[in-house]
């Protein structure tokens, strides 16, 4: 086994032993690597063939390596759950890549842990392929994200609402899986000393320039504001922005009922369980800010001995979210529109127009003649008279995003044993800015109502 694999590190478990549970993956009946990310393996300094042969992708670890389930709490749809944690996931260890960057190697679907509550510990193939595909699409779009290293089938069926589905294990990589919910758990179970240990680890790992805890908090707030702006610019709807799915690193994790919006509508929701639209496209910035306020609460005792002062300081920091978000969003919109300077009024009027005319978000920015996309062309002309692009826009506007109807089509085929559509859409979205002849269907919005999908 390569040195990188046999030397899986465990600095997290060492730093905060009270936040992990030693655990092993459930044995898998018939593991088979279905998709392996050769490019990512190479970046990590791993040999893909060796990786497949080692069994690591479904949780067989070298001697001396101790996988752990990570503990965390979280607000799910606004409701506090004191004990979540990796119910069906495991941190196998950390890999330091040849550039010296540290990554978590983490599984999903690897069997029940003590955090499983009512769950079966399993994952179905479709949702794991969705997570893999979405991560690659986001990575290709330049958006910070966890990435799939491999999806392996288990040879076992998992029962879900829709019937028996093929089971799978996702092996994924992220700069860490430390969540807002991890801090909530530390604050609730261990108090300030445990939060301090977790904070020290998170600072060293993700925000080493932070001068103190308040400054660390500020950096997380800013990283998340930048991330959410990037989601909004590409029309991404995460779908489960619970505090346990909000990272300290500012990376996107947990691709559940997520999708890219076709027609521009701030109310867009894909998740079949998000009845109230809490996590609708347009709500994502205020929800992220709300989640970050929960992080602030967990950090309060470390921010200042005096609780009123601590609250005052944390509040001032979380209030920076709006301004930082807006700065990133407007800079991104300026790039998308080919403008040298942000123009918030032009953007606001465009958004109103796209909404009223139900124009495809991704399509608009790369259209040769955007005017053709509008029913009310006079309204478009009035807006366009104020639009004077000066810069090349193609590099700022993807031609291809994983459109939900095509993702669904590919996942359905994969569950029935045909992986070809999945591999094709994966290839398409892995080069989102480059025109790919013969792949026009990937630029078309889906017709009819949005597909709702709450995959597990
Ligand atoms: N099938 C399952 N068996 C056991 N626990 C589960 C299962 N599905 C979800 N959970 C647990 O429910 C909680 C919330 O699930 P959520 O869908 O946000 O996370 P996840 O998709 O399992 O994992 P992650 O956030 O690590 O990507 C987590 O504690 C998760 O471990
Ligand atoms: Mg989750």
Descriptive notes:
With about 450 residues, this protein is of the alpha+beta class. It has a domain at about 5-175. Helices cover about 40% and strands about 15% of the residues. It contains 16 helices and eleven strands. The protein has helices at about 5, 10-15, 40-45, 50-55, 125-140, 180-190, 190-205, 215-235, 285-305, 305-320, 320-335, 345-355, 360-365, 375-385, 405-415, 420-430; strands at about 20, 30-35, 70, 75, 80, 90-95, 100-110, 145-160, 165-175, 235, 260. β8 and β9 form a beta hairpin. Its cofactor is Mg(2+); Mn(2+). InterPro entries: SelO. Its EC number is 2.7.7.-, 2.7.7.108.
Q: Gist?
A:
Belongs to the SELO family. It is an enzyme of class 2 (transferase). The protein has 456 residues and is α+β, with helices and mostly antiparallel strands.
Largest sheet: 5 strands, antiparallel
Q: How would you describe the shape?
A: globular
- Low-pLDDT ranges: none
Radius of gyration: 22 Å
The helix/strand order is HHEEHHEEEEEHEEHHHEEHHHHHHHH
Distance between the termini: 32 Å
How many runs of DSSP E, i.e. beta strands? 11
Mean pLDDT: 96
Structural class given helices, strands, pairing?
A: alpha+beta
Q: What are the SSEs and their pairings?
A:
Elements: H1 3-6, H2 11-15, E1 20-22, E2 32-36, H3 38-44, H4 48-54, E3 68-70, E4 74-76, E5 79-81, E6 89-96, E7 102-108, H5 125-140, E8 147-160, E9 163-174, H6 180-189, H7 192-206, H8 213-234, E10 236-237, E11 259-260, H9 284-303, H10 307-318, H11 320-337, H12 344-356, H13 361-366, H14 377-384, H15 404-415, H16 420-429
Antiparallel strand pairs: 1-3, 2-8, 4-5, 6-7, 7-9, 8-9, 10-11
The structure holds adenosine-5'-triphosphate (ATP) and magnesium ion (MG).
The site of magnesium ion has 3 residues, from loops.
